[in-house]
Amino acid sequence: MLSTTLILGLVLGGTYALLALGLTLQYGIARIMNLAYGEFTLIAAFLVVASFQHLGVPPLVALPFVTIAGYGFGWLLYQVMMRPLVARSGSSGRLEVDSILATFGLLFLIQGVLLVGFGANFTSISYLDRGIDVLGVSVALNRLIAFAICVLAGGALVVALQKTRWGLIMRAVALTPGSAPLVGIDVNRVARQGFAIGSALAATAGASISMYQTFSATGGVVFTMKALVIVIMGGVGNVPGALAAGLALGLLETFVATAIDPGLTLAATFAIFLLVLLWRPQGLFGART
Amino acid sequence: MTRISRRAALRALSICMTSTLAFGAGSALAQDGPVKIGYAVARTGPNATGAGITTIPNYELWVDTVNKAGGLTMPDGSQRMIEVVEYDNRSANEDLVRSIERLATQDKVDLILPPWGTGGNLAIAPLMARFGYPQLAVTAVTDKAPDFAARWDRSFWMLGGGHDYAGGLVDVLTKARDAGTINNKVAVVSVADGFGIDLITGARPAFAEAGFELVYDKTYPLGTSDFAAIMSEAQGSGADSFVAFSYPPGSFGMTKTAQSMNYNPAVFYISVGGAFPIYPGVADGKAEGVMAIGGVDAESPAIQEYFTRHTAFVGSPPDSWASAITYASLEMLAQAIERVGLDHAALAEELSGGTFETVVGEVKLEDNQLRDLWWIGQWQGDAFRAIGPADKTGAATPIIPKPEW
């Protein structure tokens, strides 16, 4: 009983964490609160489904391409749309407000394009839906894959950020974007890279979501909300934090659904969210400032 | 700034004049000009999905069909084309109400077609009544339909209420239990949102009355995407029947989860989404035996012709629940106009009392409501066939137990 809850919860948590990784990078490093994040994942999900249905490309094969395309899309978007906002805001706190407004508009733009391009229908494919026995619990293979992707991507990011020079630069920009240029860091370049990697992760998450979940062109905001809750709980820009918060949320939801009542999962999520905001506004793993 | 040269200005002026003349001549040729029909539907926002499946394609298909046939026939035998005025209500009731007001007062349309969804139809009902427009509320499932029909006498409610659907399901299960095919235990989950609440409130007493025991009865929040925990509880509950009062994402999610964990109840019932044409694809071609809300008489030539026409025009087949009813409501409208013209009072009276030939067969409303409906259907072969009420002509025999996934 308990092992069922644990395994199902961890797998669910993994899919949540994967969704949040990109957002935490975009906000943490590029300082852009991307409200269109859910739509980014949807673009990827739709592309994967379309190539699966029309060209017969298996989603797992399409995934790396979508990820690379996501990087390019993020890079371009930062260059065209975010760069002027960053330049205008200087060192003041205006960037946060401006980016929220700009990406809020972007949300509707992408939603409209998706509606025109893919229609309003619910989209759902059947791919690797069979159950896999994990310590006596049957888990859908496609969710296990999403979990594995999350562990791989999250683990690689954590290591890269902590152990490499590149990671050091990223962290420097995240911590004090004002002082980073003093030691010769091109903040614009680093922020652009952070945003692009975030978009690539959003695309990865979208591609894996398309394998196991029903989605429609108007459902992006649900993903953004979930990711936002996890990002804030884990501490903004904190990759291990987002991983831990995502897993914790999955475990919590599964525990509440089996032990108490499925109707309270949402309430439990937001109760924890409130508690974190009240007592640790910097996030569970955020550093005190 | 670019300066507009005199030559360009003159050219523009002449183009304007010719086009005005041409337009004037054109409209003088048509008898009486077009009939203006307005609607405010959700092109964006959360309702866009429902409207995009059930409402908008049928409106467009109908307008196209009527106009290709020369237009709406008036009582004197003349024909008038349909001109559409459309607004996006952005899934917000405030926008919806504003658009309806605009359609009535500024665009002065001849007729207004309803939006998608119970909430939207309730939101505009007082306004439609104030302006005197008949309201053919198709995509509104409500147990209060009799009250609404009495309060707004030009409103028509065509999709029944939660009790009807719950009752239809319980009837099918009762017969199977009495035949000894399933036990009297039922696992039921419902989405904590208007529709799910309506159905579960109707279902609980109906199940109790029929002697069923609800061994698992839980609600889940709207937006839930992972059903592994719920389904494993239901699987362990010992019930032969699994019932979900769900929206499409939930219906699809539960189907996939049941398949991946190899959960094979004798009865697998889901709600909205089960009758969608994409469902067999979602179920990986193993939809056989799955029950869901709605249904059509798949053997009827009128329905088959409608499915073919819809597929050709929209690119995908309609859903097997509210789509055909939506199209039937428009056929009713056209026939009523042919009999009494565009006067709102006469039109409402004709809709209320007349008998109409539609894709779902002969329709006659009772107290402004369509009661001759299918409550439950099942995937059999490649079609979603209606199985209840069992005594209605065209009902298929339910397959219980459902074949394994």
UniProtKB/TrEMBL annotation, chain A:
GO terms for molecular function: transmembrane transporter activity. Belongs to the binding-protein-dependent transport system permease family. LivHM subfamily. It is found in: Cell membrane. The keyword GTP-binding does not apply. GO terms for cellular component: plasma membrane. It comes from Pseudooceanicola sediminis. It comes from the Bacteria. It is a multi-pass membrane protein. This is Branched-chain amino acid ABC transporter permease. One of its GO terms (biological process) is amino acid transport. The chain crosses the membrane at residues 6-25, 61-78, 99-120, 140-161, 193-215, 227-249, 255-279. PANTHER family: AMINO ACID ABC TRANSPORTER PERMEASE PROTEIN, BRANCHED-CHAIN AMINO ACID TRANSPORT SYSTEM PERMEASE PROTEIN LIVH. Keywords: Amino-acid transport, Cell membrane, Membrane, Transmembrane, Transmembrane helix, Transport. The keyword Transmembrane helix applies. CDD domains: TM_PBP1_LivH_like. Pfam families: BPD_transp_2.
From TrEMBL, chain B:
Keywords: Amino-acid transport, Signal, Transport. It comes from the Bacteria. This is Twin-arginine translocation pathway signal protein. Residues 1-30 form the signal peptide. InterPro entries: BCAA_transport, Leu-bd, Peripla_BP_I. Residues 34-380 form the Leucine-binding protein domain. GO terms for biological process: amino acid transport. The keyword Signal applies. Belongs to the leucine-binding protein family.
